[in-house]
Design brief:
TIM Barrel; about 290 residues; ten-stranded mixed beta sheet; two-stranded antiparallel ribbon
């Protein structure tokens, strides 16, 4: 079921909360770090105060880096989910943190967990079962969780056997398209028709997802700055990564009012996912702005 089918929140924040990661995946859209910096903590109490003061309910998507490396990760989740909702992207590598999360966080306030299965990193650590065990524990505790596998071109000859192996451990993987260049070809456009049919369902790849990667929403109405925002690691709130200088305050200090209407996107280059990946917010914004 689409996690937005019964919307309890007004605004979506994509929060790039940490740069450090304990994996070194060369296909990562962020810079692979292998933990290139000391562990971090965020001022969870202050963030909660700033969000609560707006009177709106937020769905906060924690991305990075690997969010579970935050030294106060579970405290952050527990505090923010009192009045808001969280969506989490993670590699599930921190077993003790996951166990504590299960004990202390209300699963009804988590709108989704996108668990990334990075097969080459898992092989280096002999940790297939650890991923499956953490996944099963979260699912059995009532957390909405899915598992993804980045279909890098060099992995295409083994992807079916990888899926079967992890399926035998109780986890159903979904392929997600690789975005980038490999051996002179641009992806996701470079996938063969056969691989597209085999790997990607229509919601993930065909149609609007592919279109958003290729062309974005340039010269069309966009809801960035209206009900979806990008939050940088220093807390600066922007409408999106194409307009980082167009700010709406800081998540540690004060949030400024959002745009009162959707605006035409005039980015020179845009691969904005807001209108496709977060389609419910886009449709909601169109209706509220009288554009539907």
């Amino acid at each position: 079921m689409n996690r937005h089918s019964s919307l309890h929140y007004d605004v979506h924040l994509i929060w790039d909360v940490i740069s450090a990661c304990n994996y070194r995946c060369d296909y990562c859209l962020a810079s692979p770090s292998g933990i290139s910096e000391p562990p971090e903590a965020v001022d969870a109490k202050r963030v909660k105060q700033v969000l609560d003061a707006t009177g709106r309910v937020y769905e906060i998507n924690l991305v990075g880096g690997e969010p579970t490396l935050l030294t106060n990760f579970v405290d952050l989740l527990r505090l923010l989910t009192r009045n808001h909702y969280l969506f989490l992207s993670t590699n599930l590598s921190r077993s003790k943190v996951i166990a504590r999360m299960i004990e202390e966080v209300d699963p009804s306030r988590i709108t989704g967990i996108d668990a990334s299965f990075h097969v080459e990193e898992r092989e280096r650590r002999s940790s297939f079962e650890q991923f499956a065990r953490s996944f099963r524990m979260l699912r059995e505790a009532g957390f909405p969780i899915t598992a993804n596998y980045v279909a890098h071109p060099r992995l295409l000859n083994r992807i079916e056997s990888d899926f079967e192996r992890i399926r035998d451990m109780g986890v159903e993987l979904k392929a997600t398209p690789f975005i980038g260049h490999w051996e002179g070809r641009a992806y996701p456009e470079g996938y063969s028709e056969a691989h597209r049919r085999m790997l990607f369902d229509e919601e993930v790849y065909a149609g609007k997802w592919e279109a958003s990667v290729a062309t974005g929403v340039r010269n069309h109405y966009c809801n960035a700055g209206y009900n979806v925002f990008w939050v940088a690691r220093d807390g600066t709130i922007s409408k999106c990564t194409s307009f980082l200088n167009h700010t709406y305050g800081n998540i540690y200090k004060e949030m400024h009012p959002p745009d009162t209407m959707m605006k035409i996107c005039n980015a020179v280059s845009c691969s904005c996912p807001y209108y496709s990946v977060l389609s419910h917010y886009f449709e909601k914004a169109k209706k509220e702005c009288g554009l539907s």
